[in-house]
Amino acid sequence: MTTTIPVTSEPAPIAPRELVTPLGLGDRIFYRGSLLSGLAVLAIMAAVGLFLSMQAVDALRVTGVSFLTTSEWQPDRGEFGIAAVLSFTVMIALVAVAVALPMALGTALFITEVAPARLRSTFISLVDLMAAVPSVVYGLWGLFLFQGQVIGFSRWLSSWFSWIPVFRVSGADPSSPLVNETVYTTSTFVAGLVVALMAMPIMCSIMREVFSQVPTGEREGAFALGATRWGMIRSVAIPFARGGIIGGTMLGLGRALGETIAVYLIISPRFDISFHILEAGSNSVSSLIALRYSESSGFGLSALMAAGLALFAMTLAVNFTASIFVAKSRSGASSEA
Amino acid sequence: MMATDLLDRPTVAGFGQQAPATTIPVRAVEAEGPPARRPLGGVSRADLADIVGALVSALFTTLLLFKHLTPLSGPLGFVVVFYAIFLATYAFLVSLTEARPAVVDKIMATLLSSAAAIAGLALVSVVGFTLWKGRAALTKTNLYLQDMSSAGPADPLSVGGIKHAIVGTFMVISVAILLSVPLGLSCAVFLNETRSRAGRLVRTVVDAMTALPSILTGLFIFATWILILGFERSSLAASLAVSILMLPIVIRSADVVLRLVPGNLKEASDALGAPRWRTVWHVVMPTARSGLATSVILGVARGVGETAPVLLTSGFTSSLNLDPLKNPMVSLPLATFEFVRSPQPALIARGFATAAVLMVVVLVLFTLARVLGGRPAGHLGKRQARRVAARSARDVARFDLMAGAGR
Q1: pLDDT of residue B5
Q2: CB-nearest partner of B275 from A24, A230, A293
């Protein structure tokens, strides 16, 4: 008694099954709907960008390349450009980042490495709160409290370091006892310091996020080899987080470039290019728009839009560079637990 | 035998002799029980003494410098000199007992803590200054019950109020929430549920949109809605501008939160045969609920405080307006801005009161976000956990009932 196995002369080739699941009605509606919302966001953004560029082209056609080199702002006479406004904007942002970077880095490292673990979430909330404080409140604080305190420092800086061109102040004489303090107010420096406080929380939260992702194994490896806490930070945490530090700094720079109301309240506008950051008077693209939008109509408005577009292009470039750096840092954001 | 002798030097002299047996030293310590644990963290008494000593020494050295030895003056200079002397003294004190790396470690820890302290001081100063300057007006009820239509610029704080700005803020922000939150959340779901080329494009564009300076959203609405389409300045126009501003914030933070929903939960739902939309509605969204609430509230806190887009779109008024479609409307940040721009001291005091009210609104929203959120996806609060336990108890009872009926 033997089992007979039927032998098929030619085994039929097995076709792989198709893995397409037919979508139900609910899913079809769901996918269409979510696609629609994505496209709506895309459309809104495209509308903003396209409209601004179209309007800006009107203004740019009149000035041409001199839009980048003119520092005057008189659209009615056809004489306008962003040389002064944009350079002041960049200087305010640079002062802000120069002050905010060590503060943000120190705070982020303090929260992740030094602070006791049970206070950590409180400190994180405080930094987030700092980001949520409205900019007009920062502006009030800067105008009515901070500016008065910082003038002394400005004067000290200008009288001891005026051999560095950036710190020179025209009209200030340190040897004269009757120093007029108004030569130091409403300056790029003061505005930059206030904007630094607004840029700091963004930078800090990105850096903290990256520092908290430093692998425990590497961290403990450093300690096992006898590193002190600072030794571990220097040799493990900071190299690991370098991408996040650079990216966070650039995001802060983007925020600083676009700040409107606080800068508007503090500075007094001027339209000549000056790289002396302690000198009275400064400017920025967004405060220029806030200042001039009501008095200009038609062509003046498209001139303002051209300035706004230049600012947007700059923040966009900064943000994309930032996101490349953040993505290149060794931090994953997916969880598959 | 020979192998162990090789290491034993004294026996090498008498080579060939019988090696002595290995002796194991008896430890006296074991009799005293397990050794005490060394403290790994925290501040020891010696550390504390170093810090306090350095502080006291720096304080008196600085006082001596400022009062008697040099013509230095000014509070800021005092603090800076004090801090420098403190650091130097502290480094010296630590170096008496510790090696160089430990000294560097202590100094760097001090520097990091100081950076955080400066940031904290700035926050306390900003919030405290605003609330303190506005305290006189905050306690007066007419601030909340009247508008500015009957009050002149020089009138004292007991006349007039900011009812119109409070109402205006809530009208602007609630329409903006209606416009941006549903769109933002569904867009975040779209980014998470599809891996298409369109999704990647939308994500890139949303990233770009966060770079949009806030004043440009206002300028865009001003040029299109008001100048080209011919609508008048109203709270609706302001809502449009604010919702364009809030949209990328809501999408980005909701996207991050949704990405943190554990993959195995979604797969479990798929494996049970649920269609995608049911998975999203019944698994993904409830799991991420607290995080989503946080992202919405953070977007709202940002939208409430923005002045620039409202400045261009809503106009300015000093009386109450309840119609979102017609006539100018004023909001808290804009009212603050307009009050403070005037040279009149009474109006500046009003500006601080308005800023204080705005600050309170933001603080309340922020606390709400912390209470609701702050938990990672899937972790339940006490009450939520109790509700889930009750529901599953009901399910067990239902199953028992069905099993009984089937039998």
Answers
A1: 47
A2: A24
